[in-house]
Amino acid sequence: MKIRCLADCDFLGVRKIGRSVYYQCLMDINRIEPTIVSTTAPIGGICLEYCGTQECPPGHMWEGYRKNYVIHTVLRGKGTFTVSGKTYRIGAGQAFAMFPGEFYHYAADMDDPWEYCWIGFEGFRCDAYVKRIGFEKGKRYVVSAPDPEDIWQKVTKITDYGSLTCLDEVRRLALLLDILAELMEGNAETEQQLLDYPGSTYVRYLVDYLDYHYAEKIRLTEVAEKIGVSRSYLTHSFKTLMHMPPKEYLTRVRMRQAKYLLLNTGKTITEISHLCGYDDSMAFDKSFRKYYEQSPGAYRKSHTVHVEKSAQQIAYGLNSVL
Asked: What is the separation of C-alpha 142 from the centre of its chain, rounded to a whole number of angstroms?
């Protein structure tokens, strides 16, 4: 039985035909009635519009233009997908994408028709997400889908959350993002070659990280892996924006904290060295001497005397006035 996708239906709300479901986006609702406040507003720059699952009959085909982004994941069987005069033969464990504004044609195989699920979505973050998966308009339309059964189950679950309520909207969005994340993970090699954010975003993260974790043993490679960039890229971006390498910045943070502890607490030099991220007090002493041109002990003594003299001068001045 043919299951019709409701992408072009002109109505408000949700309808189901078999396992195909359409969600009217808030942006479309507001174009009809600007005063409507709905829970279906795009969250995080992406909004689910429709989804579905289908067991296609032999030769079943679709062709036309898409108004939004659509990703099909093939569970079993095979078929063909054509765009810009190029035809791809696609089978189980693969996913193909369609972008807004392009003409597409796809058809199920006559002998082994495919069974697939699909998600349609839009929003200002969509292009970044599909690029993370490995799709690129005009260049790459097909990627692997290592666990199509899991994606199929998530799409099916979305169709179970069909009401236009905030709760079901969040559930649908969570499943949509989970599907996109699964496809990204399945194509991690491609994902790692792309950077959504400018270098300043990663540098800001590293600056904040060093400011708060200076007392810990910091491995820049681990920090870079955590935020999804290479160590060399992170270091280069940091040097470009901060005009110093990350190691020098970390030393500055630690020395400022050491100075504060020396002048405002009674902690020993060894205690202060540990609090500033140095396991070895000798290494701390060496860094401190290089930075302030004095040993920690001498710095504390000379500056404490200076502070005491300043305090005495202030007291003398007040007494003379009084």
From this structure: 22
Average of pLDDT values for 248-272?
A: 95
Phi and psi, residue 87, nearest 5°: -110, 130
Count how many Cα atoms sit within 13 Å of the Cα of residue 235 in the half-sphere of its side chain.
10
| Residue 133 per-residue DSSP state | H
Q: Looking at residue 5, what DSSP letter applies?
A: -
DSSP sequence for 246-289: HHHHHHHHHHHHHHHHHHH----HHHHHHHTT-S-HHHHHHHHH
CA–CA dist 183, 188 (Å, integer):
9
Q: What is the pLDDT of residue 175?
A: 94
Interval 84-101 mean pLDDT = 95
Q: What is the secondary structure of 63-74 as a DSSP string? A: EEE-SSEEEEEE
Query: What pLDDT does residue 230 have?
Result: 84
Query: What are the beta bridge partners of residue 80?
Result: 89, 107
Query: CA dist 76 to 11, 90, 100, 299, Å?
Result: 33, 10, 26, 73
64 forms beta bridges with 104
> For position 83, what pLDDT does the model report?
95
pLDDT in tens, 147-161: 999 999 999 999 888
Q: What CA–CA distance (Å, rounded) separates 219 from 60? A: 55
pLDDT, tens digit (0-9, with 9 covering 90-100), for 307-317: 444 444 544 44
Domain assignments of the chain as residue spans, ordered by start: 14-191, 199-308
Query: What CATH number is given for 14-191 in this structure?
Result: 2.60.120.280
Phi, psi of 125 (to 5 degrees): -95, -5
Q: Which residue has the tokens 């003594």?
A: 301
Would you say domain 199-308 falls under CATH 1.10.3660.10?
no
**Against a cut of 0.70, is the pTM above it?**
no
